[in-house]
Amino acid sequence: MALLDLLGRRWTLRVLWELRDEPLGFRALQAACDRMSPTVLATRLGELRTAGLVATDDAGVNRLTPLGAQLMTALGPLRDYADTWAEALAGPPH
């Protein structure tokens, strides 16, 4: 599945996650993604644009497309499960 291949690439989900609430310029997005190199970020943004999940306007601001926002909604149950999983791993409070 092409989508799972794309989402499995390093930093791809992080880029989508950082764009979930607000559009960000390149530098702001790089800062939000901590250690990501500018080359990797440019590559991931290009891949996400090609996939129709992210759009970049003339001012260089990146935002989720409606398709990208729909993907983030679809991933919501996985995020909920991840929270439950993390709590279960933590075990009872000491």
Automatic annotation (TrEMBL):
Q: Which residues form the HTH hxlR-type domain?
A: 6-88
Q: Which organism is it from?
A: Cryptosporangium minutisporangium
The yes or no answer to whether the keyword Hydrolase is present is: no
Pfam families in the record, alphabetically? HxlR (PF01638)
Q: What is the recorded name of this protein?
A: Winged helix-turn-helix transcriptional regulator
Keywords in alphabetical order = DNA-binding, Transcription, Transcription regulation
Q: Which InterPro entries match?
A: HTH_HxlR, WH-like_DNA-bd_sf, WH_DNA-bd_sf
